[in-house]
């Protein structure tokens, strides 16, 4: 997730004000926010269950947390081309919390040669708990399974000494 849906974004002037305030009172729960849990999952029973948990944060986001989240999203967007590890991006097309179009842009901009994107046509934000969860877990399992040998070979190569690496290169040539 790099960007939330435009309808959920605070006005730029307010972001500037809250950024200044976050340096003075980072714990203040003053970030204007809708309760996005209602838009996170198609299954209302799951939403009700999540809301019933005592560890669920009921207040607005804290200033410091929101500003750190914003900085991390901006940093990720600025450095996507520096990502060169295997990458799997998954997103629900009906997600009303974050933009699936941004996931597509992340996929296109990421520097990794080994990357895959899965857009689940009718899925919402909570891919791991909604009705598509089995498909999501199956896709993750398949993606990891396809790379296990490659990952093992890469980690084994990292453990070799410089001399052993030179020997391998000589054998290949």
From TrEMBL:
Record-annotated Serine aminopeptidase S33 domain positions: 1-130
Domain of life: Eukaryota
Gene3D superfamilies in the record: alpha/beta hydrolase (3.40.50.1820)
A Pfam family per the record: Hydrolase_4
Record's protein name: Serine aminopeptidase S33 domain-containing protein
